[in-house]
Amino acid sequence: MTIQEIMQTLDAEVITGADFLDREIRTACGSDLMSDVLAFVKEQAMLLTGLVNPQVIRTAEMMDMTCILFVRGKRPTLDMIDLANENDIVLLGTPYEMFTACGRLYSKGMRGRSGK
Amino acid sequence: MDPVRLHYDISGSDFTTAGEASGKIKKTLKSLGFSPAVVRNVTIAVYEAEINMVIHAGGGAIDADIFPDRIEVVLKDEGPGIQDIDLAMQEGWSTAPENVRQLGFGAGMGLPNIKKYSDDLQIESEVGRGTTIRITVQNK
Ligand SMILES: Nc1ncnc2c1ncn2[C@@H]1O[C@H](COP(=O)(O)OP(=O)(O)OP(=O)(O)O)[C@@H](O)[C@H]1O
Ligand SMILES: [Mg+2]
Question: What is the distance in angstroms between the Cα of A109 and the nearest Cα belonging to chain B?
Answer without folding.
Answer: 27
